[in-house]
Amino acid sequence: MQSSHEHADPILEFRHITKGFGGPPVLDGIDLTVRRGDTTVILGPSGAGKSVMLKLMIGLLRPDAGEIIFDGTRIDQHSERDLGDVRRRIGFLFQHGALFDSMTVLENVAFPLREHTDLDTAARRARVRETLALLGVDDLIDRLPAELSGGQQKRVALARSVVLRPECMLYDEPTTGLDPIRSDVVARLIAMLRRELNPTSVVVTHDIALAFKVADHVLLLRRGSIYLAGPPEVFESSQDPVVRSFLDGRATVDDLHDADPGAAA
Ligand SMILES: Nc1ncnc2c1ncn2[C@@H]1O[C@H](COP(=O)(O)OP(=O)(O)OP(=O)(O)O)[C@@H](O)[C@H]1O
Ligand SMILES: [Mg+2]
Q: Is 133 in contact with 125 (CB distance < 8 Å)?
């Protein structure tokens, strides 16, 4: 089966992106095309550079070389001010997506609206309530984060990242720390947001079940390069030992060696 958006135009592109932090490059000449409306899943061992890829997409990190194109415009050399416009159009669910502890759910989810829109208090509240309702947590609007379960916090964080109705959604490990049932709920929420809001999505995950539930396109990142990219079927039918061991959840000796000890802990 082919991607439903095989012929859609690209919304996000990496052209030969290289990024390091003083040592050997973490990303070494990555090319990537994300098509409008598609869901792209990035897989790879811990420390492979998955989170770095997402941060490059919204200008939280800058590449050492290469170009990043968002909706036809090169953004890798944008000023912080111009990046504000990009970040308004791209929702980001961070890997360690902490809510602001001292703010209520309402204040947390309203935060991007205060930053990026002219909506007044009543309009912000209405938009927040509508977004929380979409995720089934509107009854939590006046709670503090400490009064929520892990799964509820994830939903509220998701609400915050979609409250501006972004054209693009980036999810970094959306199911980490959740039990399998809650993980499945997150997979369904991602699918639901896609139906309701139809964003282009990029999902970084270790959760293979999630990956194959939501992906049009999958790429496996390893040792700074894209090891394999294609529709999920290409992965499922692959007999390549690296791909198989990754999908079957068995780390190879090389992967263990590659993994960042800090990140893997
Ligand atoms: N700001 C930074 N400064 C220095 N090194 C960094 C920085 N961000 C990431 N790195 C390094 O880049 C490499 C890739 O990190 P990244 O967070 O992208 O890994 P990952 O694939 O997301 O791993 P995980 O699955 O554990 O989240 C790691 O070796 C990490 O230590
Ligand atoms: Mg990461």
A: no
Instruction: Please identify, by atom number, the ligand 1 atom nearest to the C-alpha of residue 173.
Output: 27
Q: Quick check: CB of 9 below 6 Å from ligand 1?
A: no
Q: At 119, is the secondary structure helix, strand, or coil?
A: coil
| CATH domain 10-264 topology | Rossmann fold (3.40.50)
Q: What's 9's DSSP letter?
A: P
Measured in angstroms, how far is the CA atom of residue 19 from the centroid of ligand 2? 15
8 A C-beta contact, residue 16 and residue 29: yes
Render pLDDT for 1-43 as a digit per residue (tens, 0 to 9): 444 555 679 999 999 999 999 999 999 999 999 999 999 999 9
Domain boundary assignment for the chain: 10-264
Atom of ligand 1 nearest to the CA of 206: 25
Q: What is the whole-number distance in angstroms between the Cα of residue 83 and the centre of ligand 1?
A: 22
How many Cβ atoms sit within 10 Å of the Cβ of residue 264?
13
- pLDDT level of residue 134 (50, 70, 90 thresholds): confident
Q: Dihedral, CA atoms, 87, 92, 97, 100, nearest 10 degrees?
A: 40
Tell me how crowded residue 31 is: count the other CB atoms within 10 A of its CB. 13
Angle formed by the axes of helices 150-162 and 121-134, to 10°? 130
Q: Residue 25 in contact with residue 19, Cβ under 8 Å?
A: yes
